[in-house]
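hiii, so i know i said id send this last week but things got crazy w the move. better late than never?? heres the sequnce for the chain we talked about at the cafe, plus the structure i predicted for it. fair warning i was half asleep when i ran it
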Amino acid sequence: MQNHAVKYLHLTPDSELPALEGLRQFKAIIAVEADVHESMMWDVSRWLVESGCLYALSWGKESVAWQEAIDDAFLEATDYEDMPEQRALISTSHEDDDLEEVFWFAKHRASHPADLQETLIVHIADAPRREELEAQYHDA
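okay and structure toks below
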């Protein structure tokens, strides 16, 4: 089992993207419960890649499109060059899973050659659910 730090960030469909303080290389669980315009999907994907996301797990509305967007954002950021395993992005989509299953996978199976120490839950929804989602993650 991987026992690493978890952070929670709530975004609404029209949020400004904050600077991600204190994160260097990390996993991101992108939990989308709101309808999001395609331009925001691209902005969030580029922002995560620029901030150091090396493992992205997408869940919720349009999870496959989110996975594709973050893959494309990574390719764009690396000029479509091959990256060493330590710097490569891994992405997964979990359209048929419950969020609890995604949290379990993130904690117990989602490994990266860079040994990522932090996980960021990016919750895109109309209202935050920090305590509930953090508890679900810790219980997974």
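btw Residues 69 and 138 are 28 Å apart (CA to CA). thought thatd interest u
miss u guys!!
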